[in-house]
Protein 1
Amino acid sequence: MTNPFFKNHGPITLKDIYKVLKIKKDNTNLKVKIFDIADLNSASKKDITFLHSNKYKSQASITKAAACITTKNLQHILPSKCEKIIVENVLISTAKVTEILYPDSINDDFDITVKEISKTKFKNKVKFGKNVLIGSNVKIGKNCSIGHNTIIEKNVIIGENCSIGSNTIIRNSILKNHIKVLDSCVVGKKGFGFFPHNGSNYRFPQIGIVLINDYSEIGCGATIDRGSISNTIIGKNTYLDNQIHIAHNVKIGDNCIIAGQVGFAGSSTLGNNVMIGGQAGISGHLKIGNNIKIGGGSGVIKDIPDNSRVMGYPAKDLKEFIKDNK
């Protein structure tokens, strides 16, 4: 399960899926049970997944999923044992199926379960400021502190020796040990996932979490969205400067340093030891390798191989950039 917090209402059957997608299907075993939804890499033989781009053909060709929502033009990539559910719009269809399994993941209203920390079991275990609120299903380890006016909403696990600043909101997140989240951050709220459909916008359920690994620091005013189908992950010993936005499903490796006002679009992946200068932008669904340096103000719109130094818009090899801008 991607998110240990949202309740999975499965299993459902292929018949249920075809019904919600308004597809008539007779030549298959409609009683096959589907227990969860997952991305191509992590889906098991009991799960459903989706394929909407040829960019993911390598993952699609070896997926273990029992069924896959895809298009007529992409179905040939999938393994023969995988049930191909052919639709016109893969992402909207995936959203509809996800909503059946996780109906509670659509809305992100304020948490009505919160209590003042002085009225909870943490009152003598955590160092805290004024007006601190704690939701249900929250765990906090030893030697932690929480600043003024901060809300730890429901479904949060915080490890040992962590410091949470003032005016911060955290939900649907797991923070490991020795982590610092500075003032005015929002971590674990739903991502910017919706699709125009029939004159309105169809919301994509955000069933993932935010996972922040040991010894990382999140700067003031940062916003980290939880994942949609997979998780948003911050690696070990990674430092984020102020006012950084990280969209859903982004995965940042270990020992990365990211300067202020950098923005990440959804589902991009960074390797280890990546350094990014201020106000750079990383487009979605990209793979940034290990040991990368990206100059400030750059616009990254394509994959970057290991050990590269790039700058500019669109970002190019640093030597080429310097030559072009003499």
Protein 2
Amino acid sequence: MAYALEIKDVHKTFNSGTINEKIALDGVNLNLEEGDFVTIIGGNGAGKSTTLNAVAGVWPIDKGSIIIGGQDVTALPEHKRAKFLGRVFQDPMTGTAATMSIEENMAIAARRGKRRTLKWGVTKAEREQFKEMLKTLDLGLEDRLTSKVGLLSGGQRQAVTLLMASLQKPNLLLLDEHTAALDPKTAAKVLALSDKIIEENNLTAMMVTHNMKDAIAHGNRLIMMHEGKVIYDVRGEEKKNLKVSDLLAKFEEVSGGEFANDRMMLS
């Protein structure tokens, strides 16, 4: 069976051989099936975002392999992996061009990986398509196609980035704490939108979050990381019935220590 994503024995150490040496990933193994929506939790420095960056090819890994949709991408640089991936970052300012309009940003996303021609303007057909897509966000943005993205609020911007990331139905959608910079109400809206986009497009997705409640409420599978390893992997009914206290207990059992990430405990 071909998996949507295979992470095989991936290791990554930063500043190797120096006083600042940090083992970030310590033999991570993870397979995602088509349509899996996996939430990833863990304390600070557990390897959550590092795992997403390894998949995206932000830097080379030291050992192991990464296979997306049956294709080994381990040796491919970040820009060559872009055609397989959609990404939404923690900072609402990343992932869009602030000085360009909403429709221009969406057009760039729609044409990613396709042959470029000298004709640049946004076509009438594209404009109609973008309008329809923006309508589904329910944020009134369909009437603001020519507004510069830099003028949008953080939540509006993340919503547009989500649409852009999913426009080409990527093999894998990576959400890296994409609601962390938003207020709770806006975060809830962006999460609901993420669920909708993933479901409607039948995408395979990984979402890093520091919020245990969100990790339980979203997706069909949850993994917990600690010290660069996957220490817990739960799915389906068992995941649905989890409580935050279960996750804390599991963490203490596997790691032999208290869960000491205030940011996660408070959220």
